Amino acid sequence: MPTFLSSKISQISFGLLLTVLFGFLILKSSLFGILLLVLVIFIVCLFLNFKVGLVLVIFTLLLGQLTRFSLSSGGSIVLNDFLIPLVFFVWLLIKLRKKEIPIYKTSLNWPLGLFILIALFSLLLNWNHFLPSEIIQGAAYLVRFVSYALVFFLTLDVVKDKDTFSKFYNFAIWTGLLFAFLGFLQLVFIPSFEFMAKYGWDPHLNRLLSTFFDPNYAGGFLVLVCSLVLGRMLFTDNKAEKGLWFYAFLFLTLAIILTYSRSTYLAFAIMVLVIGILRSWRLLLFGALALVVAFFAFPRMQERILGGFSLDATAKMRLENYKEAQEIIEDNWLIGVGYNNLRAVREAYGQVLDVKSHAAGGFDSTFLTILATTGVFGLLVYLWLCFRILKETFKQFWDKKSSPVLRGLGLGIFAGFLGLIAHSQFVNSLLYPHIMLYLWFVLGLFYAGKRIFQEI
Fold first, then answer.
1. Fewer CB atoms < 10 Å away: N or C end of the chain?
2. How many Cβ atoms sit within 10 Å of the Cβ of residue 191?
């Protein structure tokens, strides 16, 4: 803490001053005063124990779209858009106070840094083509991407020993399981989302959305969590623990089925196929059997899967979305329109009827969105980043001399990320804030585990 708070008298005086200040604020504006009090308490907790901040950041992804605030320009922010920069700022203050700012060298540093530079470059080159408010909105998307990527380095700094690694690994999985549980509660108490259509949400009926308010994004997130669970299950010799993770796998599988999302089914099938081939043929057989049983047990699942082959209304809309992306890419293939100016550009092209629509800021494919906003160079570097993630996680899994728990995490990320890549060609899932946050967190955990287990 600062020097002027070092003595007992100063601490008591400062506490009394804060009490009077917050009492006044709560009397004048109860909501503002309470929020400010919570903020100060949170910052103090960060200084006392920074791990609390990182845990809270990850945990708040469970709030999903419940903390979404729409902006007049058509964009939106969620709680983590504000919380993560705050946590990073406090981390920076702590490190400056200790006169130590660690620089962690990982295989992701170069592609991640280069992609951010290209994204910034594309934004600056398109500066004169947009209004100041549109440029600010586009830059805000880049700030979001950078701040979420910083979670990777914050996790690397926080997770320094085997005990912390184990606790955060469990925390990552249980966060995903709680998200699925919230999805079941939503399915029971709010099965129809038609009342949310006036706020720009799709009127989903009897589908598991959880707090993301969208079955596709919820499903993509659940596939990644499910992959981590399988990696944990297949690399433990403890029968009780193996049984626990098996039931967790069944729980998540049921949640995935109830999303009735075809892109999620594809991601899940790829994930199970990869893990089955690489580690367990029994899982492969079980997955195939479960798919057949689920196909006949859930008529709507049949309808959704067969509808994809016959080009139903949803599939036709997605194809139309790809054509719109192609139209913009053909005109801006070299440097893109700027990351992320798509909302304004799509309006100029006459592609969206409502610029405030939640889907106006991207396309139904992460790779097409990256190509349209950062050009061919941005896409190539982004693919390089994806390749590095796959290479490092697979390499760790394949290393039989490595720690079993780290091998399991490597396999879980490798298979889950492959599934997400497939998923992201139908939904912009790799740039979805909550999925980005979770992915950077588990990647930070993975690289921290590499450092820890190599030192042991």
1. C
2. 13
26 occurs within a structural domain: no
**Residue 38 lies inside a defined structural domain of this protein:** no
Parent domain of 166: 111-455
Contact 416, 221 (CB under 8 A): no
- The DSSP call for residue 310 is T
Residue 66, domain member (yes or no): no
CA angle centred on 160, ends 154 and 164, rounded to 5°? 95
CA proximity to 369, closest of 138, 200, 149: 138
pTM of the model: 0.90
Distance CA 328, CA 371 (A): 10
Q: What is the mean pLDDT of each run of 10 residues along the chain (456 residues)?
A: 45 51 52 59 74 88 86 72 88 85 91 97 88 83 94 95 95 97 96 86 93 96 98 94 96 96 95 95 87 86 78 81 93 90 84 60 90 96 98 96 95 98 96 96 97 76
Taking the chain, what is the end-to-end CA distance rounded to the nearest angstrom? 33
Total domains in the fold of the chain = 1
Q: How far apart are CA 309 and CA 40, in angstroms?
A: 54
Q: How far apart are the C-alpha atoms of 450 and 455, rounded to whole Å?
A: 9
> How much helix, strand and coil, in percent to the nearest 5, is found in the chain?
75, 0, 20
Q: Determine the Cα–Cα distance for residues 64 and 181; give it in Å rounded to an integer.
A: 14
Question: Which secondary-structure segment (H or E) carries 69?
Answer: strand 69-70
Distance of CA 144 to the CA centre of its chain: 12
Identity of residue 324: E
